[in-house]
Amino acid sequence: MEWKILAVGDVVGNPGMEHIRRSLRKLKQRCGADFVVVNGENASAIGIVPHQAEDILDAGADVITLGNHSFDKREICSYLDESSRILRPANYAPQVPGRGWAVYESKAGDIAVIDLIGRCNMDYGPDNPFLLVEKILKQITAKIILVELHAEATSEKLAMGFMLDGRVTAVWGTHTHVPTADVMVLPNGTGYVTDLGMTGPRYSVLGIKPELSIAKFRGDLTERYRCADGVTQLNAVLFTVDSVTGKTIKAERVDEWE
Length: 258
Hints:
With 258 residues, the protein is an alpha/beta fold. It has one domain (2-201, 231-257): 4-Layer Sandwich (Purple Acid Phosphatase, chain A, domain 2). The chain has helices spanning 13-31, 50-58, 77-82, 129-137, 154-164, 210-218; strands at 2-8, 10-11, 35-39, 63-65, 86-87, 101-104, 111-117, 144-150, 170-174, 184-185, 191-193, 198-201, 232-234, 236-242, 248-253, 256-257. A six-stranded mixed sheet has the order 5-4-3-1-14-15, covered by helices on one side. The protein is globular, with a radius of gyration of 17 Å.
């Protein structure tokens, strides 16, 4: 038997949230996805608040992952402790709210999801994700294991993929908001993509109005970033998993825009 896992790129601002509310459940049905993971750390453009997390879950997500903006909206902190269906990076300091990995019951059996943050060019100084994931894997007996690395450097994400090849079901990257073309199954059966991309304004710079980003790079006086208008996109990757081995047998992009 085969199971299908859908991983959806960073939701950005109100445009991304509207697209998720409108389209995620339809996409889930169209792909036949049995389990859905959505990165929601930019649902408020920067950060996420509880009602947005609830909306993403209501739209069809099974788990929400976060990244370097996990705590930008402090009202999310108590929610992170209360809900097991939202994860912040596991390699943050242990005293911060929330959890970094969990095992979920599904019709595909137990599914473990691990959220990690990279170290290259990131704002924080978290524990080494390469060392921490080894400790976490020793605690997991689930056959299907999904790992997200929220990171800037493509090399860091690739290195994580190859290190875990054959040991987990899939590894994907988030954070850059730019979908990469390297969707593949690694030699030992782990599905991989360097970056899922984002869910938000298609004609934008990482979700924001292009002119605002251009002004910053030009050195002009800048104003507060605002999400771009118009057509929105949803970037996602679908992993088809062998139920016996827990390995990925197919990985493909299922991007859409409207």
